[in-house]
Structures are given as C-alpha cells and as structure tokens.
Amino acid sequence: MEYFIELLFSGLTRGSIYALIALGYTMVYGIIGLINFAHGEIYMIGAFTALVVSTALTIYGFPLLAVVVLTALAAAVWAASYGYTIERLAYRPLRSAPRLSPLISAIGMSIFLQNYVLLAQTSDFVPFPALVPEFAFMEPYAHIVGSSDMAILVVSALAMIILTCMIKYTRTGKAMRATAQDQKMALLVGINVDNVISITFITGSALAAIGGLLIASHIGQINFYIGFIAGIKAFTAAVLGGIGSIPGAVLGSFILGLTEAFATGYVSSDYEDVFAFSLLVLILIFKPAGLLGKATIEKV
Amino acid sequence: MLELRNIDTYYGNIQALHQIDLTVEAGEIITLIGANGAGKSTTLMSISGISPPRSGEIIFKGKPIHELPANKIVTLGISQVPEGRHIFPELTVAENLDMGAFLRNDKRGIADDLEYLYDLFPILRKRRNQPGGNLSGGEQQMLAISRALMAHPQLLLLDEPSMGLAPLVTKQIFEIIEKINREQNTTIFLVEQNANLALQIAHRGYVLENGRITMHDQADKLLANKDVQKAYLGI
Ligand SMILES: Nc1ncnc2c1ncn2[C@@H]1O[C@H](COP(=O)(O)OP(=O)(O)OP(=O)(O)O)[C@@H](O)[C@H]1O
Ligand SMILES: [Mg+2]
C-alpha cells in the first residue's frame, strides 16, 4: 500500500510537470492551430536561466527564499521573452502561408535553440542546485513523498489555478477564448489578435520555465537535450487530452504521469515509454480528438 | 458619413472589387444588393479593415480609415455583423455581448445598452447563461446584431441578416433593424440577397455585379426598375 502511494505521488509529480509544459502546446494550438515544436526548448532555456541566476544569487549570499523567488521570476521572464521572440520571428511572418511552413519553421527553431545552448554550454549534464530544502514538517512522510515533490505539486497547482482564473475572468482571458473560437470575429469586435497571440506565447513559455526550474532542482542536473524529451512527453499528454483544450492538457498530463509511474514501479522502468505511447495510440484509435477534444474535421 | 472612393480589393491575385464608389449619409439605411459572389461581403470586409483595399480611399467622418487596423475602425464607430453571424460558440450569450463592448470602458453606458438590447430581444435575456452555439439561427442573428450594437456604433454593417431564417423571423429582424435606425439613430449599411425586403426598408440602394457598382438610386426607384425587377426581384 505504501509503495502504491509512493508511486501515486511520483505519478502526480510527473503529471504536474507535463501539465506545465503541455498547457503551452495546447494554448498555442488553440489560438493559431500550430504545434510549437520549439516549446520544449523554452522549458530547457527556463532551466538553464534558473541555473545561472540561482548560482549567481547564491554566490552573492542571498537567503534561499529570495534565491528561489528571484530565480523563478527571472526564468519565467527570460523564457517568456524567447517565446515572444520566436513567435514574432518564426511564426508571424508565415501566418498566411500554407500550414506546413510554420510547422517546418517550428522544427527549425527547436533545432536552432538546442544547438545554441549546446554551443553556449556543453553537451554534458551540468549539476543543478537543489532549490527546495527538506521541510521539517515533511519529515514523517519523507519515505513516501519528498519535499521537492510536494513543492512541484503545490507550485503547479497554484500556477494552473491562476491560469484558469485569468482565462475565465480577465479581459485578456476572454479575448484569448474569443480569438481561439473565431479569429475573424475577434478582429471584428476590436480585439488586437496579434497581442493576444503574443500573450499566449508569453504565458505558455513562463509556465514551461517554471516547470523546467522545478524538475531541474528535483533531478539535480540538466543539459541541452532535456527539452526534447520533456517536450515530446508533454505534447503526447496534450494530444491525449485533446489538443486545444486546457482541461484536456491537464488531464492528459496526469494520466500520462501516473501511467509512467505505475508502469515503472510495477513492471520495469524499461517499459515506461512503451506504456505511455501505447496509451496514446489506443486513445487516438478510439477517440481521435483526444479525451476532451472536440471532434473537428481537419481542413488542410 | 462614409465614402468609398475607387476601391480595388484583391484576394491574392484575384481582384474582387473594381473601382467601388459609394457613399452613406448619416442616419440613413442603404442597401447593397447583388448575386452570389458579386463582392458584397468583400465590400464590408474592406470597410472593416479585414480585407483592406489595395488602392482607393475609405473616408469615415472626414478621416481616411483604409490603412487602419480592424480594432481602430471599431473604436471609430463602425461595427459589423458578418455573414453567417459568427457567434463565439462556447461563450455564453452574456459573454458574447460582453465581447461586443470589448473596446468600451464606460460601465454605465454598457449596462444601459445591455438593458436596451435585452428589452429589444427578450429571448436573449432568458438565454443569457447558455453557450451561444446552442441558440437557433434566428436567435443567433439577434445575438450577432446585439453584439455589434454593444459597441455603440454610429454605422452598423449588416451582411445578409436574413440568411437561412424563416420568413417570419426575417420579418421580425428587419423590423428591429428599422427600429434601431429610428430610435438609436444608427446608420445602417445592409447587404442582402433578398433584394425585395432590403429595398423596402432602405432609403437608397446600390447594385453590385461582378465586383462593380452598376446602378444606384432611391430604393423605391430601384424597386420599380425593370432591370432590377428581372435580375433581383424575381418579377
Ligand atoms: N477568402 C477569399 N479568398 C479568395 N477569394 C475569395 C475569398 N472570399 C471571397 N472570394 C471571392 O471574391 C468574390 C466576391 O466574394 P464575396 O464573398 O464578397 O461575394 P458576396 O457578394 O458576398 O457573395 P454571397 O452572396 O455568396 O455572400 C467571389 O468571387 C469569391 O469567390
Ligand atoms: Mg457574402
């Protein structure tokens, strides 16, 4: 039983991280119908930014809490500026081009960013400091769920609640929903659609950066390639839940995270990916639009 | 109030509008009639800044607007009810109306306009918490018109409001259009395939054929015109 709970928490932790990344995929897809293949790299850049900033702040003797808060802020802002710039440079000029063009541009951006970080850093894993201390009150449960798992769960839950409120209640959120549902009409009621698209990239990138920071601190090392793996997994989760749907991305992420955790725990870690992708294939066969996605006819 | 001078609009290399000249006076209802594919919707989209003209000028209240982005044009007082209504399907009726007032900040004025529209279309008040996509065609048309009016426009562009509606519902909608013109003093630019109905409520009319204006006159004169009768009125 205890083992089950341990796996459960491990699955939820993975799911949270996937969700933080998957939200960016699904939001961008919802608004402009593009799979932003460079999104995983944004997550990786968030992690590297966190590494640089937290190291510097620690050297200057900032207290841990200040280091964590400032690092998260810096990683989110820096990654957001990448997300914003990528859209402006690589996608916006191609908005009225055939659908394949921005997709290829996205893959190009992904390769570019990976190699850019590879050259600027190194291909080896670099150690990442643990930003979450061992909380005293977590001590009795430490054999089931670590402090850093708990931090991941709490922070991502908060991020998702804030995002949901923003989309549901704010003026910007309403503009995002309207633009996702009918872009031409959004223009006709006076929404600045270009701004809405920029805000979508900024929001998705900031969330991914927070995910990057959390997982880097949890695992303790990063390299230029982490965005690719995590990106594919989160993308899988978004498709599983129904790409374009925000609750779908969260649901898909938790299903994927839990499946992986239980497959690893009860079968073998060798089968982690096999289970994850089998699940995806099954769902796509029986529910092609994903769990919460709308069945739409692809118009190409 | 609105003047189109020599408008040429293209889709890629295909020219949809040829040297359109057209004026709308403040307070009037004008109608643009024409067959399928004549370029009626394109004319409205050119005015709204969604398909801006490649050459020519569009002057609204003395200022050129043909180079402005769509949201600026809405701010100046031009709102459109596009062909096919384009209700935001997953937003509620109330949220759809709210989007119409997206560029306004005057809370009092917005609340007053909302009351006016709910009184004009009581069914919308009843359904205000339902998703817009669940409404019937006629209700969606009422919602689309109301959403455009929530911007408190001086000029309302209506693209085929009768499309797909039962005759009785169409009649109701047209009565409301006249009422808005009378009570709110909103200038109306009405695009219709149902030329007969449109010319009955309009003051003046333009006839569009293959992207060119071929005729314009007082509405009653067009109704009596033999060529118009034969081509558009089925007489
Ligand atoms: N997005 C587009 N891309 C290319 N061509 C277009 C586009 N929209 C319209 N056209 C073409 O421009 C011409 C004018 O179309 P428009 O929709 O303005 O006509 P309309 O008078 O509104 O017709 P209807 O009565 O069917 O609504 C048509 O030949 C049409 O095929
Ligand atoms: Mg049309």
Distinct compounds present: adenosine-5'-triphosphate, magnesium ion
Number of helices of chain A: 11
Number of domains of chain A: 1
CATH topology of chain A: ABC transporter involved in vitamin B12 uptake, BtuC
| Helical fraction of chain A | over 70%
Average pLDDT level of chain B: 92
Which two chains share the most extensive interface? Answer: A-B, 16 and 24 residues
CATH-assigned homologous superfamily of chain B: P-loop containing nucleotide triphosphate hydrolases
- Computed structural class of chain B: alpha/beta
Level-2 CATH architecture of chain B: 3-Layer(aba) Sandwich
Rg for CA atoms of chain B: 17 Å
- Mean pLDDT across every amino acid position of chain A: 89
Strand content of chain B: 25-35%
Ends distance of chain A:
50 Å
Write the layout of secondary structure elements.
The complex is a heterodimer of chains A (300) and B (235).
Chain A lengths: L1 H31 L6 H21 L4 H28 L8 H21 L5 E2 L19 H23 L1 H11 L1 H6 L4 H27 L1 E2 L3 H16 L4 H22 L4 H15 L14
Antiparallel strand pairs in A: 1-2
Chain B lengths: L1 E10 L2 E11 L4 E6 L5 H9 L6 E6 L2 E2 L5 H7 L1 E4 L11 H8 L6 H14 L1 H5 L10 H13 L5 E5 L7 H17 L3 E6 L2 H7 L2 E6 L2 E7 H6 L1 H7 L3
Parallel strand pairs in B: 3-8, 3-9, 6-7, 7-8
Antiparallel strand pairs in B: 1-2, 1-4, 4-5, 9-10
Helix pairs in contact in B: 3-6
The structure holds adenosine-5'-triphosphate and magnesium ion.
Adenosine-5'-triphosphate (ATP) binds next to strand 2 and helix 1 of chain B.
